[in-house]
Known about the structure:
This protein is 37% helix and 14% strand.
Amino acid sequence: MIPYATQWLDQDDLNAVTDALRSAYLTQGPLVAEFERVVALYCSARYAVAFNSGTSALHGACFAAGITVGDEVITSPITFVASSNAILYCGGKPIFVDVQSDTINIDPAEIEKNITSKTKVIIPVHFTGHPVELSQIKQIAEKHKLIIIEDAAHALGAEYKSEKIGSCKYSDMTILSFHAVKHITTGEGGMVTTNDEELYKKLLMFRTHGITREHELLEKKEEGPWYYEMRDLGFNYRITDFQCALGISQLKKLDQFVSRRREIVDQYNQAFSSLEGIIVPIEKNGVRSSWHIYPVRFKGDRKAIFNQLRDQGIGVNVHYLPVYLQPYYRQLGYKAGACPKAEKYYAQTVTLPLYPKMSDDDVKTVITKVKEVL
């Protein structure tokens, strides 16, 4: 079976983790700050705060943005459930708006139409690693005084108008994911980048129980060096040093990983673009996708095609059922039909294998099997 995705670890990665395990710190040590530093440098952001998962990073960003009961947050329905779950964690209400038919990214025009007096934040999702229309979304946010949190769990290494995703040039915060199938991995892990010092400090406290030792933030400044204060109801969302050691090692190979992903996509596009019955994903001018996944749309019986490909040893997947159609969200009152383009996309889509470790023979096998099934 050729899986739809898998990690790629080499001896340098294993050595980095082994060295960290032999050090004085397994957690709360210097490698966390170093990982944050190199990711911020790569993304051209001023600050970065590492978390133990991308979901934790989303939760932290929503908290730092001040989302609370009664607030509405606009986001995409074509995403993993964490994008909107983090809104619920803070007491807010996700407002799902429809996607563009070509990129399947959130449609800025739909964002504008759904803003109310309760709207506080926009969380656009860079689906598949293809950046959203950030400049348009920023104009909308500035007009209505809204906060932007980029969900870039798919998009580390991507670029928008020659700016790295994560630079926060067009947003207040960006979240990244380092799950095993992402562009680089720490096993589980995530990060928030920002250029705002106040948000940075809130994120630091939130991931450590809401606790601070910063002297300027303490109420009792006369206490000794042992003293700390809990200022907010935070969580233990800390990442370990040995995970960060892996992340630092993996980051050195990120550009190589993205380049290989783009090579595979080029091979897929050349093979499939002229075929009847299949719609391939696109890359718009002015962006450079990091291609986390490669979803295609079939005009035939999607379920039959999916099953046949699995039977042929191709580990296809589907990304995603619109979040509001999940049973939990339907219990909250969300209904089918809310985002017709998103639902049409879901009914047709199949994700083909895409990961840097794929050999050219693997790619050819996928192409051959897809053509046979069609």
